[in-house]
Write a structure and sequence with these properties.
alpha/beta; Rossmann fold; two-stranded antiparallel sheet; about 15% strand; binds zinc ion
Length: about 230
């Protein structure tokens, strides 16, 4: 009896379980958790917008959104990235219908960490974002070349120093630069230093960064707190 057969047999009889509450789930999450998650959406996802470069943050990093991100990263639930990317893509289309098409580049994680985790959540979010928006995707637009520590304990100067030269131009742009502006996509937007370092690497190579989109930021305020 092949293992594939066994797997199919099991999936016929096992009910999928919600990774956030262990109740039966029709889709990626159960309906109750998905509804609750949707409430984490910011009333104004574009509230972080600064100057010329659009910055969109989908939700407040707290409650069930924080839990969903933790389950995705640390409990091996990459499928949650698909849902979050879909939310982010929809919000981008809602908020910025007049903005030009951009090429999406995920902010890559450390290769060592990626190997341990088995996936890069920013890449999966970006993939799903592109399915939603129809934007082209360049997963290897950037590469991480420097080991970095978490930034939250550092002061602004130390953060900048830590992120300096953290990225290099990735394979996708080494031979041919992008003609479209780049939209950087990440799961979290905390200090902004990481994504800014990525943007700087692209600009130095003559690639225009047209915007940033992140799933969550601890600086946001949710639509409501029900
Ligand atoms: Zn649930």
């Amino acid at each position: 009896m092949s293992l594939g057969w066994l797997r199919n047999f099991r999936s016929l009889f096992l009910i999928e379980v919600c990774p956030l509450c262990d109740r039966p789930a029709e889709e990626i999450l159960c309906r109750a958790c998905e509804t609750q998650l949707q409430r984490c959406r910011l009333a104004q996802p574009e509230a972080f917008w600064q100057g010329e470069s659009p910055l969109l943050v989908w939700g407040n990093y707290g409650g069930i959104l924080k839990r969903a991100i933790a389950a995705m990263k640390y409990e091996n639930h990459p499928e949650i990235a698909e849902l979050l990317g879909e939310f982010l893509g929809r919000a981008w289309l809602d908020v910025s219908p007049s903005l030009p098409k951009m090429v999406v580049v995920p902010v890559p994680m450390n290769p060592e960490k990626r190997k341990q985790r088995g996936f890069d959540q920013a890449e999966l979010i970006a993939r799903s974002f592109c399915r939603q928006t129809g934007f082209p995707l360049k997963c290897q637009g950037l590469q991480r070349v420097k080991e970095t520590q978490p930034l939250f304990d550092l002061n602004p100067q130390e953060r900048e120093l830590m992120m300096r030269d953290a990225f290099a131009l990735g394979k996708d742009f080494q031979k041919e630069r992008s003609r479209l502006p780049v939209l950087l996509v990440d799961d979290l937007y905390t200090t902004g230093n990481t994504v800014k370092a990525g943007a700087k690497t692209l600009s130095r190579a003559g690639i225009r960064v047209g915007g940033i989109a992140a799933v969550a930021s601890p600086r946001g305020k949710a639509t409501d707190k029900r």
